[in-house]
Amino acid sequence: MKVALGVCGGIAAYKACEVVRLLQDQGIRVQVVMTTAAQEFVRPLTFAALSGEKVITGLWESGGQQPNLDSAIEHISVAQSIDAVVVAPCTADMMGKFAHGQADDFLSTLYLATPAPVIVAPAMNVEMWNHAATQENLEILRKRGVYIVEPGSGYLACGMVGAGRLADPPEIVAATLSALGVVRDLAGETVLITAGPTREAIDPVRFLGNRSSGKMGYALAEAATRRGAKVILISGPVAIDSPEGAEVISIESAEQMRNAVISQLDNASVVIAAAAVADFRLRNSAQEKIKRSGSLTLELEPTPDILAEIASRRIPGQILVGFAAETQNALENGRAKLRRKGIDAIVVNDVSKAGIGFDSERNEVTIVTHDEEISVAEAPKQKIAHRILDVVLKLKTQAGKAAPAR
Known about the structure:
Layout (H helix, E strand, L loop, with lengths): L1 E6 L8 H10 L3 E6 L9 H8 L17 H13 L2 E7 L1 H9 L5 H8 L4 E5 L3 H5 L1 H12 L3 E2 L3 E4 L5 E5 L3 H12 L9 E6 L4 E4 L2 E3 L6 H12 L3 E6 L11 E4 L3 H11 L5 E4 L6 E3 L17 E3 L3 H8 L5 E8 L3 H12 L3 E6 L11 E8 L3 E8 H19 L7
Helix pairs in contact: 1-2, 1-8, 3-5, 4-7, 9-13
């Protein structure tokens, strides 16, 4: 996870150094963006040393006469690579730029270019804070969904007393984590997740498989790790980097996935079966490559029903979540699968819709439990992962000690 930390000109700019450190303590990469005025209070080298990242200081070469072609387009690449923009301290001037769509420096341009959440921590003189223009700009930003970390009250650098002092760095970081959906509400839980496809060998060079990319399962693993859980990810063959902090067990076939799941089942308080397990395998795969010669008949048999076996072996208090990828009557088929498998929730998605589902960064799902159906509109899979985990937590609260015994 990565955030851009905007630092504006003001005596409170030195506190941004502590914000960098606290964000890093949460495993978040920080790229600092400094206004010209901010560089009069803290030098870019300080933030570069703290963050280990390039510090962006403007759109222009030194002297402001010639455009820096790299920086001139960098706001777009940064805007697309970050998970949030945090501005601390944020001056009245910068809030005005944000509110009215001005884009005459890197930070204000980045604000307009990013779809990521924006967290603003204002700091200024008490009279500037109370001015009607400042308060109107704040209201505009709030209505747009910008997170405002209210300034504290006390002695200010100007010698006056009142509101306008930059919020404490831990408060700014807490607001950032909240905006990112990063909470530690799964601390103490062990979440077992299956992801990706399985491959069933036809011969040494061919296999039966499916279009699953594993992106949903990996998003779940990353989200659960961020929320404090111990994560065991059992993954079929995918082209995705392993989620940081998760224990990854790589498998290929449905039988291998079944064995890995059963070996870890008693260690898990939550099981999320997001993998697209092949329903059939060859009764007898060839030991040598099958040569091309006319038609070929394959004799298939069912693979193990991993989800049903998990349900039959579940331990007290364990929450089980399955997935249903459907192409027609999605909700009806999902509800039936929920009852048939004897699980707590099922995530239903219609994979026939273009641009979502298999091998996409986005999805649109309905989370079905025995008590409710929660529709999640099209969104990045990372966001959907957090919605699924929210339901898991609700189920755990409801279940208490009344979970079915083994």
